[in-house]
Amino acid sequence: MESSQVESVIDFTDRASSMNAGHVQPIDKRSIHQICSGQVVLNLATAVKELVENSLDAGATNIEIRLKEYGCELLEVIDNGSGIQQDDFEGLALKHHTSKLKDFSDLTCIETFGFRGEALSSLCALSCLTITTCYKTCSVGTRIEYDYNGKIKSQEPCPRQRGTTVTLQNVFHTLPVRHKEFLRNLKKEFNKMVNVLYAYCIISTGARLVCYNQTATRKNLVVTTNCNSSIKDNITNVYGAKQ
Fold first, then answer.
1. Residue 121, class by beta-carbon neighbours within 10 Å (0-12 exposed, 13-18 middle, 19+ buried)?
2. For residue 37, what are the domain limits?
3. Of 93, 113, 211, 220, which has the highest C-beta tally within 10 A?
4. Family, per the entry (predicted)?
């Protein structure tokens, strides 16, 4: 059974003890959001994938992924893309909100990676999410902290060059069973994430991707590319010249 399914079973079991057996009851909105979000962001690899895709969709040519203790304490993706407009702050992390399509027919000509309006909303439900961004026409950045429902908790100006930084702290801590499994298999989850990141490093020509992992004793370079114009050069950066 998937950990997300286990979470659901435990949640429903706890609720069943406090309600009359045999009666159909609505699930509260907070639980619905957590359960559904757990089906969108399945693991550390999915979280990194969604954030890297957002950076590439924003036209970033430099993307830095920072992890602390293999991602269990902190995951941060920093880019030099177009940034986020102030008018979009409020809806940025809400469910089913996106700037990449307007109706179902747009799916036939989609040219971006992320378009479902699910990623940031789901990450809000599963972690503590903060976004620091500066739109390409702005002279000052903004730091926005979101709550678990994707609504703005705080917003303040801050210095930043053009681009966006997404910071996640304590991923999966709102789902105790999955969080426990994540910590128990931390190195395995990290290696899955690295393999997914390799794929984006290889296909992303014209963009430099670099990833670091900070442990208690040292900062390790995981992978880096050099803003190459060809996939072949990216493969050399990722796997070495022999490969």
1. buried
2. 3-16+27-239
3. 93
4. Belongs to the DNA mismatch repair MutL/HexB family.
Burial of 96 (0-12, 13-18, 19+ CB in 10 A): exposed
- DSSP H or E stretch at residue 180: helix 176-184
Overall domain count for the chain: 1
Distance CA 9, CA 3 (A): 10
Tokens of 241: 């010249």
Q: What strand order describes the sheet that includes 62-68?
A: 152-158, 141-146, 128-134, 163-169, 74-79, 62-68, 208-214, 219-224
CATH number of the domain bearing residue 210:
3.30.565.10
Each residue's pLDDT tens digit, 85-128: 999 899 888 876 666 656 666 566 666 665 555 788 889 989 99
pTM for this prediction? 0.80
